[in-house]
Specification:
The protein is an alpha/beta fold. The chain has two domains: about 210 residues, Vaccinia Virus protein VP39 (Rossmann fold); about 80 residues, rRNA adenine dimethylase, C-terminal domain (Helicase, Ruva Protein, domain 3). Helix content is about 35%, strand content about 15%. The chain contains twelve helices and 13 strands. The protein has a seven-stranded mixed sheet, sandwiched between helices. α10 crosses α11. It starts with about 25 loop residues before the first strand and ends with a helix.
Amino acid sequence: MAGRRESHDGRSRGAGHGRPGGAGAGGRGDAVGAGDRSRPPRPHSLHRYGQNHLVDGNILRVIVEQAAVTADDVVLEVGAADGQLTRPLLDRALLVHAFEIDHRYAARLARLAVERGNLRVHPGDALKQDLAGLDPAPTALVANLAYNIAIPLIMTTIAGLPRMTRWAVMVQKELGDRLFAVPSTKAYSAVSVLVQLACCREQVRAVPPSAFRPQPRVESSFVTFVRHEAREAGEAPAGRSMRAAGEAPPLDSVDYAAMGTLVRLAFGQRRKVLTNSLSGAAHAGAVLARDDVLRALDELGLEPAARPEELTPSRWVEFAHALGWLPAPVPGTPAASGG
């Protein structure tokens, strides 16, 4: 990733929004107090890595429970630091792939990997690694994410890790609000559309600045969400779908990537109406004309002056089909019937 951009609270992109640490859950679920001297002192926080250590043990325990990791899960953790979150994850998961960009923690994590056979340590920036090549493949992301790495990592794992079905992430509140924002609100964005096309929210828990050291100048949210298919598999009777009315039908990886391009083009010029922001867009060897966009809007009963934030995720899929951006749905499929 090119360069390091400043976050809203003045810190640059790094491997963790608020690194788990201090008073937290230790191995086998025991609490580690802030004054515990059984482990060497943690290095001072580096702003360039967005290090704000979670020092509230009660919140850490709640987070571990809300993450709902099972014995079959392969967890991807980004920003492992000294392993305060890693340890309880190791107690619950089949295996943990732990990434850490700060070399000062390398020796500690290496020792932990020797102690615990189900830990794989990966030094460096997770976004610069081949996450799709991890073996075994991750099924869950549990991480405390810096502002500038949060959205790229979430979107990369949704699009590029098909076996990943669960996300449990600490993010700045503004980003947490964007993930599952509703249409026609300030928070609703391309990320909102793309996350909701693939996933449904489970829980959101507010985390105050006082839970971290040093304290960030913004509030945080711990958000858990799962793929629609995973929810349906767990809730639906045999042969029946639990997809809610109005939810978009599932998209394969090719169509999801195409939707990502279309939605980002539209929201990239948020103040413009769709006829202006999408006119001239090229896809699959064709270029959209203004009349193509008007025709698609009319087919869906939308106004010619419709803007990107007015369309729900499912309407975005219908709009993409009407534009010819996605191939016409096969008759008899959920996409063809609209549910």
